[in-house]
């Protein structure tokens, strides 16, 4: 379980997060939704300390962080080891083929043997019907294929929580569907995922919980059905803007 309490993030020109308190249960998918510029990505990046909140606290199971106190490098490392991160940009290692993209982290960071890392990478590719991509280089992949490989690369590190920041925003609808099917499969396997998304259909069908962030504040947190059936004016207005 991840808990953030009274978290604030002040940039020089903007209050990005305003006294945010949220819970992210293990073995569930939480969709973070809200208008552009509302603080969704800042919140996600704060969880693994890519952004350092100005104040507030966070606990990740047995790890506790007070953002008003100095955070040691060893504490940062302990926290980041718990997370896998997938960004909007695929950012694969261009000089490595798909198989070695999946092996690089376990070998270089975790000290896993090349043999064990290769077996794990091949198992992941087989699990998601992507074995035929093993020998290809990133330039030989479509955008959807690159993003699916990026997800598997994060999974190869065996994170406790998988963070995804609008992983399909740069893809056309067909390629987006390919990636969303992978995330649906992971959700069905009870992978602990936190996904920033503008895709309300994905949030409705896949997420167990929704956190609605509006102007840096938590406007809703709870089960998915409760969000989509809410009578709150702000939520209805937001959902209404998603249809035409």
TrEMBL record:
Major localization class: membrane
Domain ABC transporter: start-end pairs: 2-240
Membrane topology: Peripheral membrane protein
Record has Transcription regulation as a keyword: no
Entry keyword set: ATP-binding, Cell membrane, Membrane, Nucleotide-binding, Transport
Recorded superkingdom: Bacteria
Protein's cellular compartments: Cell membrane
Stored PANTHER family: AMINO ACID IMPORT ATP-BINDING PROTEIN, L-CYSTINE IMPORT ATP-BINDING PROTEIN TCYN
Protein name in the entry: ATPase component (GlnQ)
Species per Swiss-Prot/TrEMBL record: Eupransor demetentiae
